[in-house]
Amino acid sequence: MARVQEPAHTLVLNVGSSSLKAALFNGHERIWHGDTGLADPAPAALAEQLEHWLEPALAPWWARIRLVGHRVVHGGEQFCAPTAITPAVLQQLEALEPLAPLHNPPAVAAIRWLQQRWPQWQQWACFDTAFHATLPPEAYSYALPAAWRAAGRRRYGFHGLSHQHLAERAAAHWRDLGRGGLPRLISCHLGAGCSLAAIAEGRSRDTSMGFTPLEGLVMARRSGSVDPGLLLHLQRQGISLAELDQGLNQRSGLLGLSGLSADWRELQAAAAAGHAGAQLARAVFRHRLLAGIGAMAASLGGVELIGLTGGIGSRDQGLLADLQQALAWMGPVEWLQVEADEEALIARLISDPADRASGAAGGSGAGDPH
């Protein structure tokens, strides 16, 4: 009797700014997943963490793994579809690290670690910027000198894999309601990082993050949008670029506003107990979020569905009820909470040749794809 060959498995690694997630798939079936905090994003420390956490966890399956997908936050102008990792591609990814300093370096470090441990595995990168390749020029252009814009200083947008996953779930929900076509959707990714996307016909038309993942909404430790004149003022006051970078990316956001914590659940409890800093953090977060949703609705010319995802968005029922009440002026709007599942989307994108060809943005679309 002929021996039945074991199917090849697909591993997905999602290295975030504060978390390390991995999932193993047999076709579209998830057979293992793990989630742990990112102790230290430095390459040597990350390699040690992967060796002690991921390698033993994969012991029962490592011989059957053939394909690996990685979430890479910033793809710049050159990457707008799932891309096979080659030495040249890896060099390009390293060159993009300054554009997403909290995210791209650990992703590249994980790719290199896997290359050394299992060189026979075929590795692919899927980009958070790719879904936003359909942004029209009026949405991605900054009002900057032409020479600066020609050098790629533009809005890229992020959390694209999460926004795409929510858009797909929203489309299925819309069909279940018996509605035709696709809804005008505002996708809200709310977690350690936060961003909005205005989605029409399944394509990104506007988004809140920009050239880097620092622009837009208030986040756990990142400031979100700040008057650039204030940043120039701080530099004139003697604040170094390194201190400015660290302050905006690590000491701002909910942590900076509250003076207490970057953890949403801890701030909720502290605010209820009367902590003034926690109450301010929640109020500013809410204010910027409501203003951003209003802006996305204006970009779409109306909205039929608002979806919440991410660690905060998908789980906080109180936030959902508050937003529904505050945005009642919009009229009838469907609401949907969806658990983020970037890993399943990545596994599908790199396993299906049709998805590889079309890319995470569903093709180049309108406008000037990056």
Description:
The chain has 370 residues and is α/β, with parallel strands linked by helices. It has 2 domains: 9-127 and 343-358, Nucleotidyltransferase, domain 5 (2-Layer Sandwich), CATH 3.30.420; 179-339, ATPase, nucleotide binding domain (Nucleotidyltransferase, domain 5, 2-Layer Sandwich). Helices cover 41% and strands 18% of the residues. It has 15 helices and 11 strands. The chain has helices at residues 43-57, 87-95, 104-117, 137-140, 146-150, 160-176, 228-236, 241-250, 253-258, 264-272, 276-300, 310-313, 317-326, 342-351, 353-358, and strands at residues 9-15, 19-26, 29-37, 65-72, 83-84, 122-127, 185-190, 194-200, 203-207, 305-309, 334-337. The strands form 2 sheets. The chain has a 6-stranded mixed sheet with strand order 3-2-1-4-6-5, sandwiched between helices. It has a 5-stranded mixed sheet with strand order 9-8-7-10-11, with helices on both faces. Helix 1 (43-57) packs across helix 3 and helix 10 crosses helix 11 (276-300). The protein is globular and about 55 Å long. The relative contact order is 0.14. Mean pLDDT is 92; it is low at 1-5 and 358-370.
